[in-house]
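The instructor's notes for this session suggest beginning with a concrete chain rather than abstract definitions. Hand out the sequence below and ask the class to guess, before any prediction is shown, which regions might be ordered.
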Amino acid sequence: MTAESRLFTIGYEQMPASAVLDELERAGVRLLVDVRAVTSSRRPGLSKNQLATNLHSRGITYRHLRGLGTPKQGRLARRRGKFDVLHDIYTAHLKTPQAREELDELSALVKQAGPVCILCYERDHQHCHRRWIAEVITERTGARVENLVARF
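After discussion, reveal the predicted structure:
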């Protein structure tokens, strides 16, 4: 592990794109990894193509790892506040070949790319799948994790 082995997480719920981008810049993020299964957003500037363009203008690289997104059943459980069900669904999902392959890719990126941040919708990382992704990556790489919160 290098001194640069840091993993940030951020959720954009109720935040404008500019606030999210500002927070990523403040943290020194060099690579944003989108771990949403569905990359469209009602929030302006946060759908995949707009987000990638906005990040590029700030010197941040974009990468989408769809296989680390939450399956539909997990998203439905989260909306109903059934976080234990979400955890069970997502834990099973992480055992799929695509998710395992993308965890390997993310682990390598964290080791090589300099500060990396994983992004999804949920503002509170305690009730989000990115928490479990971060735990796996920490176990594999020893990276230090910090959960960012965008500010207005």
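Then share the key points. The two ends are 34 Å apart (CA to CA). Strands lie at 6-11, 31-34, 61-64, 116-120, 144-147.
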